Amino acid sequence: MGPGPTMVHERVLKANAKSTIGHLDPAFVGLMDEIKQLLQYTFQTNNNMTMPVSAPGSAGMEACFANLVEPGDKVIVCINGVFGHRMKENVERCGGEAIVIEDDWGCPVSIDKVKQAFNANSGVVTLAFVHAETSTGVLSDAQELSEVAHNNGALVIVDAVTSLAGVPLRVDEWKLDAVYSGSQKCVSCCPGLW
Ligand SMILES: Cc1ncc(COP(=O)(O)O)c(C=O)c1O
Q1: Is 108 in the pocket of ligand 1 (CB under 6 A)?
Q2: What is the pLDDT of residues 157-179, one digit of tens each?
Q3: Is the CB–ligand 1 distance for residue 182 below 6 Å?
């Protein structure tokens, strides 16, 4: 299911065909609260800042970088496939300095290389990596990468577009700071959310 888009369940398609309600309608507010709670369960987090974004996964990515990266910030970006490159572009568009760690396509992000990058660069504020690299299907160790970042005083931004609901993703337990995903992959919903 990783590459997506996956088949959308008939129940979801039928719900899509229902008439709309106003965005200020109390019923809509209740619906949104319920969706946020269900998303918290899906992401295994109690963080109140858990919400759907009416846009594809790339907009979830942009939301994380635009809110966390300031001009001049040093960000270690792990690239082991297509989507790490997109994270690097986001860092640079925000005026940050991307310190790139590359691993061969088909290999997970090397924990040792990330540790070396922290040792070689002072003042890194964020570590960014793709949990499951869609282009190769390779999973990286989000828990350990998060620990390395926090030991060095940095936050983590995690791309969970392909991993969410496909493999364990424990946002609170692994202390992941900012995580985005996409609705069209393992969640089997329609594209265009997150
Ligand atoms: C790992 C990863 N990140 C980001 C994206 C971008 O998501 P979207 O196509 O929903 O913008 C994808 C899409 O395949 C992806 O697999």
Answers
A1: no
A2: 999 999 999 999 999 999 999 99
A3: yes
